[in-house]
Amino acid sequence: MVSSTNEVRRTVQERPVVVVGRPECCLAVVARHLLLRQGVNPAVLEVSYDADPAALVYALRSKDDNTKLVTDVAFPVVFVGGRLLGGLDRLITMHIAEELVPLLRQAGALWL
């Protein structure tokens, strides 16, 4: 289980694809399996049950990002190339639109 936002930040910066969710979250499992089927082995981080996804995303934004706290964020949260991709719905939408694989290649998560 992840103990701090700093640990999530470090993992997001070090790994090309990161899935953040609550323990035993079936939606995080679906996100992970979709990414595995694309040939990506994402880092999966589990946060506590009381973690606020909107606050986590807000805390991880870049220093030059002036956006306000977004309240409609839900776990799991997917990061690609150090940037927030979104939740499972965004991941599936990009997969269906055939935009996911090019993004994964650009992030260095796929080589072929």
From TrEMBL:
Presence of the UniProt keyword Cytoplasm in the record: yes
Keyword Cytoplasm included in the entry's annotation: yes
Keywords per UniProt: Cytoplasm, Redox-active center
UniProt xrefs under InterPro entries: GlrX-like_pln_2 (IPR011905), Thioredoxin-like_sf (IPR036249)
Gene Ontology cellular-component terms listed: cytoplasm
Protein localization: Cytoplasm
The family this protein is said to belong to: Belongs to the glutaredoxin family. CC-type subfamily.
Protein name: Glutaredoxin domain-containing protein
Organism annotation: Triticum turgidum subsp. durum (Durum wheat)
